Each structure stands twice: as C-alpha cells, then as structure tokens.
Amino acid sequence: TTSWQKDGYLFFFFQAEDGIRDFCLSRGLGDVYKRQVLGIIKYLMKSFPNDEILYEKTLAYLKGIMDKSKNWLVFSQALLNRSYSEYPKWKTKERSVIQIQTLIDQFNDVEPITYERYRYFYCLDYPNKVEMQKILADKYMAMGCLLSACELFQRLGMLEECVECLAKSGQKERATNIAKEGQKTEETPKLLCLLGELTSDPSYFTKAWESSNHRYGRAQRSLGRYHFFKKEFQESINAFETSLKINAYNPDVWFTLGCAYLKTPDYLNAVRCFSQVVSIDETQGEAWANLSASFHFQGKTQEAYLTLEQAVKHCENNWKMWENLLMFSYQNEKYGKFIECAQTLILMDRKDSVPRQVVQKVLQVFLIHLKKIEDFNSFKKAEFYERRVNAFLGVVAVSYTHLTLPTIYSVQISVVAVSLKKK
Questions:
Q1: For 321-354, what is each residue's pLDDT tens digit?
Q2: Nearest to 225 by CA among 257, 192, 268, 249
Q3: What is the three-state SS of 307-347?
C-alpha cells in the first residue's frame, strides 16, 4: 500500500491480500495494510485534534478496515478510532460512549486467546483496561454525566477528578469529605485547590502554591478569583499577574484581570488585558465591549466606536452593546450606523433606549444631505442614504408617532426624488 497527504487530503492505494479485486470474493485487505492505515489515522488525530472534516474522512477508511477483519486487536482498534470520530457529533455521541463501554467489557471475554490478542501489540497503540476506563470517564464528564464519571474515577482511585465531578454536580459536602480523606494520604496541589474552592478558604490556595514550589498556576488563578469576588481588586490583580507569568495563553484570566483593572480604575492596563483576550480569540464580544469601555473612559471616542463595532458583530442580541454603539456613533457623527443601531434597538423592543429628539435631528440631517444631491456623481452617496432611510422610515413611522409628520414625509419625498433622478 502507498499513501500521501496533499492539501489536507489523505490518499491511499491498497492491494487486496489475495490479489482478487472482486469485493465479494476477496478476503479483503491484509492485517499489514490495516495496521498501516490505523497508524496513519492515529497520527492524524493527534496532529489535527477537533477537526470535523478529518473525522468524516477517517470514518470511511475505518469502515474498510472493519470489513472482513479477522484479528481481534485490529478490529478493536478500528472500533475505538470510530468512537473517537463519532463522539463530537451529538447524534452519535451516545453510541460512541456505548461502544467504548463494550470495548471495556470485552476484556473479560474468554476468547480469543492471549496470543491472538497480543499478536500486534507493538504495532498498535491500543489502551489497556484501566486506560480505557479513564477515557470513558473523561467522555462521561464532558457529556455532563458527572455521577457516572465520578463512579469510574473513584473506582480507578483518581480522587481529584472524582471531587471535581461531585463539585460540579452540586454535592459539595460529599466532595469535601472525599477531598479531606484523600488529603491524609497524598496532598497534591490540585487537591488543595479543590478544597479551597469547596470551603472558600484562601489558605488552601497559598498552601498549594508553596507545595508546588511556585509552579502551579491554578493556585494563583483560584486565589485571584477569590479576591475578585470579594472585591479585593488589588490582591486579585497581584495573583492574576503571577499566574500569567507561568501561562500567558489563558484568555479567561486576561479577561478577569482586565475587569479588575477597570474596577481599580487603571484603564491603560485594562486596555492591555482586553487586547490580549481578543488577540487570542477575536470572537470574544464581551472583551471587545470592555475594551471599548476602557477607551471611552480615557476620552478616546473614535477607538471606543471602532472596538464596539467589533463587539456587536459577535454579540448581536446584546441590546446594551447596541445602545452604547448608538451613543458612540452619534458622538462620532456616524449617522448611517446610528440609524442601524436605532432600527436594531426598536426591533428588539428597546425603543426607550433611543432618544426621541436625537432621532428627529438625525432625520433632519439626512434631509439636508438628500437636498444637496443634484449631480450624477452624488448618486452613489444617495444610494447609501436611500437604503438606510427606506429601511428605517417604516419602523420610525410606527414606533415614533410623536415625531412631526412633516419631517418623515419630507425625507420620504426626498428619497423618491433621488430615485427618480437616478432613473
């Protein structure tokens, strides 16, 4: 068999084990070829995790491997890889987990014999029973089946994960008791942090930080969150800054640190933190909004307007952001954007957020601009005003009955006049 990868696509050329090309008559691919394909799939899954297109591609190859498969280990490895590929999709997630449980149960089967099971042991990276149970517990935890995951973790002696599952499921008292029992045998930094979060005792975070020789960043992150919710912002800032020296690629910490700087207030450092968040993940609409607020408090209205424009792209249903953008667009004389914000707020049933007098003034501004359009070169600009006004006038006429009708009618007549001129 030969294979290569080009432009993200994986190509295979196989030869049947007996040389017969007829699928019904042939014994299919030999174990040598199947092991090679399974090895390549394992490599690709580790190199490109969470790639949905890759998962779809591998399902086709795995189906070919499982057809007429004779070896126990090769078939089991193919089933496990298929479970990995099916797990990200909600329709097949449950089937994937059941398949892993079945693979765990088959370890107790009498057949096949040990020689057959270990025949290709060094060719395939097939997990043992304990590792398989841990994989299943992680899948349960990710799905939200916390008690099932807790039971498996407890059976495997993984107390930290067990405590984490119980804490997330709301059984804090039971989680605290298990954590304190585990503390008697082995006091790990993670277990101490979990105890601190369960008991709201910051001394556990400090103890975890010291026991790790100042290398466990979660201890400082947990300490920072504790001080932040206690409104002790300076202590929270110190803890977060220390944790970021260990791991700077953490957008949640940068975001909370930026919020702490806003509360201080230290707007320059707030801008630095929120800029880090959007540089890591540009879809963070809340970070864009807070970055806009940081610029606004510094009197930088242009920067505040531009960053808030990015915020509403990712948080289209947040009326507060649209309300702030309405104000910034008016301050920066962006009347086209003002009309868009006003229309969006009215459609969100937030017309009280739109100042009535400002709407009438903006319509008068449009009227002045439309009356100035006389030559053919201005028609392109007129088209912009025409689209904005036509989309907005219907909403305004219904929602703002207090506006003087001559203003609305004058704008409508001007729009019609511009359309006739273009024709």
A1: 999 998 898 888 887 788 788 888 888 888 777 7
A2: 257
A3: HHHHHHHHCCCCHHHHHHHHHHHHHCCCHHHHHHHHHHHHH
